[in-house]
Fold this sequence. Notes:
- The chain is of the alpha/beta class.
- The protein has 2 domains: about 5-130 and about 270-445, Rossmann fold (3-Layer(aba) Sandwich), CATH 3.40.50.300; about 135-265 and about 470-500, no CATH class.
- It has 19 helices and 14 strands.
- It has helices at about 25-30, 75-85, 100-110, 135-140, 145-165, 170-190, 200-205, 210-220, 225-235, 240-255, 260-265, 295-315, 340-345, 360-370, 370-380, 390-400, 415-420, 470-480, 495-500; strands spanning about 30-35, 45-50, 55-60, 65-70, 90-100, 115-120, 280-285, 325-330, 355-360, 380-385, 405, 410-415, 425-430, 440.
- The strands form 3 sheets. A 9-stranded mixed sheet has the order 6-7-5-8-9-4-10-13-14, sandwiched between helices. It has a 3-stranded antiparallel sheet with strand order 1-3-2.
- It starts with about 25 loop residues before the first helix and ends with a helix.
- The relative contact order is 0.18.
Amino acid sequence: MDRVHQDRYQEYIEFDQESRFASAEEVKCDTKHIDLQAEFYDEGGIPLLANCKEAYVDTADHHNLILGSTGSGKTRRLILILINILLRSPGSLIIVDVKGMLRRMTSGLAKRMGKKVISLDMKEFRHGECWNPLEEPAKLYYEGHREQACELFADFMDGLAAAQEQNTKDIFFVGMAKSFGNAILQTMAECLPLSMNNVANFVELSSESNYEAMVEFSRLMSYSSKTATAFRGIYSAAEKTRQSIEVSLYEMIRLFSTNERMTRMLSKSTFDIHEIACGNCVVYIEIADEKPTYHAIASMFIKQVYEILVRDAQGKPEERLPNPVYFIIDEFGNIPRIENMSNIITAARSRNIFCTLVVQSYHQLRRIYGHDAETIKANCQNWFYLFSRELSMLNEISELCGDIRTAEGGVRRLISVSELQRFKMGEMLVMHDRLYPYVTYMPDISEYRLKSYPEIPRKEIGTQKGEVVDIGKLVRKIQIGDSPVPFASEVPAIRRVMEKKRGQI
């Protein structure tokens, strides 16, 4: 481990000033040594020092922030070696995978290590597994956990509305459209079988062609229900107001309407999302860097998985998952806002959930998260800086490293903005928890000579469509008494129907 510091920083490692660089020995004392040729590790973490044979990794309950512009080496010099270490350790991984490179390079190793590999193609929606974002909340609703279900429905609508909320000054109609969408989602959970609670039917019930039937349907609901009140508020509004709300909702769901492959992929689930909490899964979420249109789906998945993990941790000792779950979110500054991210990153560690966030600049964070960006940064105990020309970020990093006294009696930064701008490929400034900062060198993944395994082939997503809801037929069944009145009981109407068929009521 003889390449910890570049020669030009050597004189600032050990000297009698408040600010200095940490020595290699100090870094090693606070980390776990691992042999990179070993097949398994009893615990994993991000490497703070590494050469081609060994690494010193941070196994503490820490989040990581990786900072570097395009082409700075973030993926090949840090993310890939991090994934290799975590795959050989206990725990599950959720990886945002730009262009599918991470999956191609590591899925074979994941299988070798006995991990269940789940691949979500959110780039072309052609291969891998299917995920129905409405399945989990619909199950909760069916089981009588209405409050928890409604929280997940709200998360779904928040994800759809994120782009609109960011780009509009008049958020009234966006807020009303979210309420409208929530009412439709709750109605689906109340009245439709679980298999029909999917994106395709959400789009169907939101369409203008079903307006008259939905108005009539809302009149048949229990008058005292909050959902009926939401529908009445929208359907009784002035025509211009109602149309504006409907247009806003259409804008939210337009991506589903224009991509049939996406709608099919999101209309059923081919894996159990709760398996992630068991600590032996790897989920690759493949997104396109050149086409951010569908990035909102990735944000929705991340948020829902987190909420499910938190619920699954309840009842466990200290309400903590038995095995760690690692989120590695590349392009974190480019995917749409994950609601309550500042709270997530604050509370996740106590649940054994850890985040590695990869951004190109502070500007990206501030653009998406506003004031919450500071909370997100502050809750990342490890910062890795590779290269950037964003002056505000360079100034902040330089300032955080502190000042030193010069021989002439003046004061200068321990590491200047100019020096940060001139980092060579592979050089990184690391700020680790309470340790002094230091500059190290991380090799390219090709230099490690790790054993490679062929990528796992992905199956093609089928073309079979699910059953389409006929709201007019449901209206008629309620009118003649063949179906119960929606929202008239704590027990969902669809559950009462199913139990009646089984002879339970």
